[in-house]
Design a protein that fits this description.
The complex is a heterodimer. Chain A is an alpha+beta fold. Chain A folds into 2 domains: about 130 residues, Barwin-like endoglucanases; about 270 residues, Alpha-Beta Plaits (2-Layer Sandwich). Chain A has 14 helices and 20 strands. In chain A, strands 1-6-3-5-4-7 form a 6-stranded mixed beta barrel. Chain A has a 4-stranded mixed β-sheet with strand order 17-10-19-18. Chain B has 18 helices and no strands. Classes of the chains: A alpha+beta, B mainly alpha. The interface between A and B is large, with 58 and 50 residues.
Chain lengths: ~450, ~475
């Protein structure tokens, strides 16, 4: 078998790259609902695979996202939806394997398209082919905002110059993403909390007295330097908290139930952007806007500072979700939980309720794990030790980006991270006083890489 | 009304735009009713609509349309209760949609009825008498339609009673800081006062119906409703006192109910909702849309039942003036929103406003500006247009549309792009959203037609008091009692 590169073909031929799918790999996991619904890293695509191209190639080929294209490789054809991916090289198409299975099971059958149809043993990794636009749209489910928001002004988007509207807003005006280069950090270590759009929470700005916590006050710290956007935390959260899988149609209209999501922002020129990944779950605010507006008191503050949902009490006005600046609340618009399937009954966490229709839910800081740790500590008549409570997302994170613990204990890891000069609170100017803080990234860029591939010596 | 307002200063002057045409020859006052009305003609006209075995075919035609709408509502709500709010377009991040828009729209419409019946009574605006009864009926049916929405829009409607502060065995109370709870009190108070006011006002007319009915069933029916009304001076005195007291109670409600509803938005932290101008601006908008709805109902009604002598051009003209005034308050609200987006120097406000006007759903803002400002506020200045019946009907529909879109803009375009750009989304109504909206329109129509057929839609007793025959001097001999009643 020869793996020689195929001979260069005509100018309009495109490079076709075969990759295993980030979620279902070669197809072996395609009957796992969690993995199907999980938005893939970078693309945020759920329930499908797609032909991934760069924005410039999409425009050049006269396509729009979600169009159906026919990919032809040496006479073999397959129909696929197309989406643009920031940072994708021009004139090439990435297709993910593992989809388009006909007999994968109840969840996996019929999702996506079968990229194996155009992959042969002659060219198992990359080849060349042509695209043709077909009529109609595929109907992809993408959990993040639309392509329009990703685009920069330079390619008919809404932002300014090379930045998309999202990046402009998130990085500049709203201070949601804060980072510095190593040089900037050395010059100004407090960069994360300086400047007009980066205010620090003042604890005396309210006319109401602050909450007091005698023993524990739970908090989380997320290191933006470490997060790679791999999504392991989300899957872990699915398993721990009995989160329902809602299906493609519901994801399409924005009703995915993940308590935790990876907010992805692309900064700069979309052909070579800088990506920022921000895990976003309930921030357990001290001044929680959701608690204020619930008419039945179904979301309340606990003595340890958790913002807790009382599922039994929730009547489902959804006011809390509207008033949540972080939009991390998830509502059971329909009966999403499967109470019937026997195998699912056994897969559930017995310490967590299965939520029925018409109930709001959200991240609980894995309150069941806190309770379990408390029971153990009470048995020994001691306080809960630092590191004894590990949330599901924290446990799954391969980069240890998530730290959880008692912020009242000044020696705990989370308290130290909270007092780190790089720590900041998202939307601090709203005075929500979130319990989750983010450690701003400091980038140590390789100058040679910065110069771009064209001038890089390795290119020869 | 001060006497100077009642009597034109110089009715025959050529510079006077109405030049005596609107002046009653008997009294020399501005004429609200048509010429030639007597106690008997008024009573016969209004009682004749109800106390007759003949129902016009047109009534049946319209009732079947309204009934079909109500059936659609029943189907849509049944499916909603079976499946959940997920059959609507509500989603993340736009978790409120048509239900809340319709709720605010319907409640707003109701306000004109209360304004006409209560505030204009306190201000002794005699012209209100021709329109107050069906405006009050409109209020009640609008509140019926509106009151449905907070209940059906929740995820678990069978637990809706948890919003009431009842003595639960679990000792659980509602959460009193939530504006949704304030809504419960505001709307239920409003509904109660409106129904009582409406009913008390009809009692003398029920007495007339009872006395004029020939059918045994009708005699019993109106006899029971009239609460033993005999028309004695003592009855009249108590009736007038009760009306005055109830209008005193209802007057603050005109201002408070929509104020509380605006708190649903103003109390939230969301840019576009978190605004102190909302209370006055919501109240003005409510009256604006309410008068539009009164016109939408009055114009076909006076044509169909030949009530031009009782609901005159003067009424249409006056309602146009109220709409002009409230329309400008609403315009001030829009202007202030734009001004504050700049003046607050808050990026959240600035982005929200930019996005509302020029964002992907900016079209809705321009529909609102066209329907609420551009068309009515340029044309309603003209007396000629204000007294043109087809034009006023057109304007009423335009303003009703515009006010519906105002609520759409407030609810949807604030929510769909809020704080975190990662959570931006969109909103696309489903057929069930439309069915429920159309369904409440149908229910409203059906209820209103039943009212027109079986209850006195114009207060006979109050109209009779406006006739020249009722204007007796202090020393005039008392009129024959039978003549007054009939």
């Amino acid at each position: 078998m020869s793996y020689d590169a195929p001979a260069p073909s005509s100018k309009d031929a495109l490079e076709i790259i075969f990759r295993p799918d980030p979620n279902v790999y070669d197809g072996r996991w395609s009957n796992v609902g969690w993995l199907q619904e999980l938005p893939k890293p970078v693309t945020n695509l759920s329930w499908d695979n797609a032909a991934l191209v760069s924005g410039a190639t999409l425009t050049k080929l006269g396509l729009e996202e979600d169009n159906i294209i026919e990919i032809t490789v040496a006479g073999r054809k397959v129909n696929a939806p197309v989406i643009a991916v920031p940072g994708h090289p021009d004139n090439s198409v990435t297709v993910h394997l593992g989809y388009g299975r006909q007999a994968a099971g109840r969840v996996g059958s019929g999702q996506g398209f079968n990229a194996y149809l155009i992959r042969t043993s002659d060219a198992p990794f990359y080849t060349t082919g042509t695209l043709k636009k077909l009529e109609g749209t595929w109907g992809l489910a993408i959990t993040k905002s639309h392509f329009q928001d990703h685009r920069s002004k330079a390619v008919s988007g809404e932002g300014t110059g090379n930045n998309s509207l999202e990046a402009d807003e998130a990085i500049n005006e709203r201070g949601i993403i804060r980072y510095a280069t190593l040089e900037q950090y050395k010059a100004d270590p407090g960069f994360a909390n300086e400047g007009e759009t980066r205010p620090k929470t003042e604890m005396d700005t309210s006319m109401f007295p602050n909450w007091e916590y005698k023993d524990n006050a739970w908090g989380m710290s997320i290191d933006m330097n470490s997060c790679t956007g791999c999504n392991a935390c989300i899957v872990s959260c699915y398993a721990e908290n009995n989160i329902a899988v809602v299906g493609k149609q519901q994801v399409r209209i924005g009703r995915n139930m993940q308590w935790l999501r990876i907010d992805t922002y692309f900064e700069g020129d979309l052909s070579a952007p800088r990506a920022h990944f921000q895990p976003m779950a309930c921030q357990h605010c001290e001044n929680a806007p959701c608690e204020q507006v619930c008419p039945v008191g179904a979301t309340v503050h606990t003595p340890e500072g958790l913002n807790t949902m009382v599922y039994n009490r929730c009547v489902g006005t959804r006011y809390c979700s509207n008033n949540c600046p972080y939009k991390v609340r998830r509502f059971n618009f329909l009966l999403f939980s499967d109470y019937e399937t026997e195998s699912l009954k056994l897969s559930r966490n017995p310490d967590v309720s299965v939520r029925t229709r018409g109930v709001m839910e959200k991240c609980s800081y894995c309150v069941q794990r806190i309770t379990a740790a408390r029971i153990e500590a009470d048995k020994d008549n001691r306080a809960i030790m630092d590191g004894e409570v590990v949330t599901a997302c924290q446990q799954a994170c391969p980069a240890s980006a998530i730290t959880f613990g008692n912020i009242n204990d000044k020696g705990s890891r989370v308290a130290k991270l909270r007092s780190d000069e790089r720590s900041y609170q998202v939307l601090a100017d709203q005075n929500t006083r979130p319990r989750t803080t983010y450690v701003a990234a400091v980038l140590n860029m390789n100058e040679e890489l910065e110069q771009g591939p064209a001038e890089h010596p390795a290119k020869g | 009304m001060a006497p100077t307002d009642l009597k034109p200063k110089n009715p025959s002057s050529p510079t006077n735009p109405i030049r005596g045409a609107g002046v009653d020859p008997a009294t020399g006052e501005f004429r609200v009713l048509g010429l030639g009305q007597t106690f008997l003609s008024v009573t016969q006209k209004i009682a004749g609509i109800v106390l007759t075995p003949e129902t016009p075919l047109g009534w049946f035609a319209l009732f079947s349309v309204g009934g079909a709408g109500a059936t659609v509502l029943l189907v849509a709500i049944t499916w909603l209760f079976l499946k959940g709010t997920g059959i609507w377009a509500v989603t993340q991040p736009v978790a409120w949609g048509f239900a809340i828009i319709n709720f605010v729209w319907w409640i707003g419409i109701g306000h004109a009825g209360t304004l006409i019946s209560a505030i204009l009574l306190l201000f002794k605006q005699g012209w209100r008498n021709s329109i107050n009864r069906f405006a009050e009926a409109m209020t009640i049916f609008a509140v019926v339609c509106a009151g449905m929405f907070p209940l059906i829009h929740v995820g678990r409607p069978w637990l809706g009673y948890w919003l009431l502060p009842y003595p639960s065995t679990m000792n659980v109370w509602p959460q009193f800081r939530s504006p949704l709870l304030w809504d419960v009190f505001a709307v239920s108070t409003y509904a109660t006062i409106s129904v009582v006011f409406w009913y008390i006002g009809m009692v003398p007319d029920f007495g007339t119906f009872r006395d004029r009915a020939h059918n045994r069933f009708a005699q019993y029916f109106y006899g029971l409703l009239s609460l033993g009304w005999r028309g004695s001076s003592r009855h009249w005195m108590r009736y007038e006192t009760a009306s005055l007291l109830l209008s005193g109670l209802a007057t603050p409600l005109v201002l408070s109910v929509h104020t509380v509803i605006s708190f649903d938005f103003a109390v939230a932290v969301l840019p576009g909702w978190h605004t102190t101008i909302f209370p006055p601006y919501f109240v003005a908008g409510a009256i604006y849309s309410g008068f539009a709805m009164v016109l939408t109902l009055a114009i076909p009604l006076r044509k169909f039942y030949h009530l031009e002598g009782l609901v005159t051009e003067r009424h249409i003209d006056n309602m146009g003036k109220v709409m002009l005034a409230t329309g400008f308050i609403v315009a001030y609200g829009y202007g202030m929103e734009a001004f504050m987006a700049w003046y607050s120097a808050s990026h959240w406000e600035a982005f929200m406003f930019w996005n509302r006007v020029f964002g992907p759903m900016g079209w809705s803002y321009w529909v609102l500006i066209t329907c609420n400002l551009a068309i009515p506020l340029t044309t309603l200045w003209s007396r000629k247009l204000r007294t043109s019946i087809p034009f006023m009907f057109f304007i009423s529909i335009v303003v009703n549309t515009g006010m519906w879109f105002e609520r759409f803009v407030i609810v949807v375009t604030s929510l769909y792009r809020d704080f975190l750009p990662s959570s931006w989304g969109t909103y696309r109504a489903t057929k069930w959203d439309y069915m429920i909206y159309v369904g409440t329109l149908g229910l409203f129509t059906a209820l209103f037609l039943l009212f027109v057929r079986f209850l006195p839609m114009i207060p006979m007793n109050e109209i009779r008091m406006m006739l020249p025959g009722a204007k007796i001097g202090p020393k005039a001999p008392p009129k024959n009692a039978a003549e007054v009643v009939n």
